[in-house]
Specification:
Layout: H1 3-14, H2 30-33, H3 38-55, H4 59-62, H5 71-84, H6 104-116, H7 122-128, H8 137-146, H9 152-162, H10 169-179, E1 193-203, E2 207-216, E3 222-227, H11 232-246, E4 254-257, H12 278-286, E5 289-292, H13 302-322, H14 328-344, H15 358-362
Helix pairs in contact: 3-5, 7-8
């Protein structure tokens, strides 16, 4: 090693002068930490520039020492120090996008597709978007992995959040607490009816039995009927042959229900986006508007949910424990008797009725229905 190299080594081991960049800990071995610590690398560059400028040697002579950099590198450090000062000794590696990385436009198309179809994997996504993007399934997998949605479950959760749906239990509880202070605003009876389907249980020799329930949100007036299946046919029958008949002259202007398959389903949507579900077609023919609640938000239709509990506790459980019903017609007849008492005799203490009966509000100025 030449004399200049020995001087550089001694100065390096001794430490930097006060004008150099400071760092917390002195490294034990330069070759192990020089490229790992950006501050140490900057100090190394500053040391060589300062030593060269004070040595009086030519750049060729200085760079011949074993610890000195090559001439082009030293010239670059000197130029940076003149232009940028002490910050010029820090690493200036450009943050370039990899050449083979998916473009931002294709990445946006992939994420938009995942938002619509979160159940599809990279191979299916690449196949479906083959005419729009030039990315294989490996590239699609890379996009999904960068966004943390390369697994089926994470894609579902991400899609729910992207579509505005609540996912976690904490968020559900927060939404439930907020809903306690909010109610569906209804100005008159018949304006909005809440509608839902409820599984009552099983009857021997019959199987599962359900009731279709509709509640007027202005008066809590209830209409229900029992069926043996939960499908669109029974939903249409309940609306056309039972609810419209029971609503008398008040009418049904809008229905609020969940996204059950008896009311709507994605498989019934046509290419234009319109739903061809039989229940939609019947409501359109009758001039009734349809409103569907957000998925996993049953409290939006809380009036129906609460009446399910009331019917279960006050009618179904006592009736089914005390008697064996050979047919649903007999059970449905006793349900109509109970609903007549519920609507005309049972007072409600809630914020809507305040001690009045549902029928007194629902039929205000109208004739009352006779007993079933």
């Amino acid at each position: 090693m030449c004399y200049l190299g020995e001087v550089c080594a001694r100065e390096w081991k001794r430490g930097s002068p006060s004008s150099m960049i400071e760092f917390d800990e002195k490294p034990q071995r330069r070759e192990e930490t020089l490229m790992d610590d950006p501050t140490l690398a900057a100090r190394h560059r500053q040391y060589h520039v300062t030593t060269f400028q004070s040595s009086g040697l030519s750049m060729r002579a200085y760079c011949r020492s074993s610890l000195a950099p090559c001439r082009s590198t030293l010239a670059k450090w000197i130029r940076r120090s003149r232009e940028e000062g002490i910050s010029g000794f820090l690493s200036q590696k450009p943050n370039r996008r990899p050449r083979n990385r998916t473009s931002l436009e294709d990445e946006a198309k992939i994420l938009e597709y995942v938002k619509r179809e979160p159940g599809h994997g990279p191979l299916r996504i690449a196949s479906e978007l083959g005419g729009e993007i030039e990315v294989g399934h490996n590239g699609v997998h890379g996009v999904l992995k960068r966004h943390g949605i390369n697994r089926h479950r994470t894609r579902l959760e991400w899609a729910r959040r992207a579509n505005g749906e609540i996912v976690t239990q904490d968020e559900l509880e927060t939404a439930r607490q907020r809903a306690k202070g909010r109610h569906v605003e209804v100005s008159s009876p018949g304006e909005v009816w809440g509608q839902d389907t409820f599984l009552i249980g099983r009857l021997k020799g019959i199987g599962r039995i359900y009731h279709y329930l509709a509640v007027d949100l202005a008066s809590s007036y209830a209409v229900a009927r029992i069926y043996t299946a939960r499908n669109a046919t029974n939903a249409c029958d309940f609306l056309e042959n039972h609810l419209l008949d029971k609503s008398c002259m008040v009418g049904v202007h809008r229905l609020l229900q969940d996204n059950g398959t008896e009311y709507t389903a994605a498989r019934w949507k046509g290419q234009s986006g319109n739903c061809n579900h039989p229940f939609h077609a019947l409501a359109q023919r009758l001039g009734i508007g349809l409103t569907f609640i957000k998925p996993r938000h049953p409290w939006t239709n809380g009036t129906c949910e609460r009446l399910h509990q009331t019917l279960l506790r006050e009618f179904y459980q006592p009736a089914l424990l005390s008697k064996i019903y050979p047919s649903i017609e007999e059970l449905d007849y006793e349900l109509q008797l109970y609903l007549y008492w519920y609507n005309h005799r049972r007072t409600h203490q809630g914020v809507r009725l305040r001690g009045r009966t549902p029928a007194s509000v629902f039929f205000a100025g109208q004739c009352h229905l006779g007993e079933p």
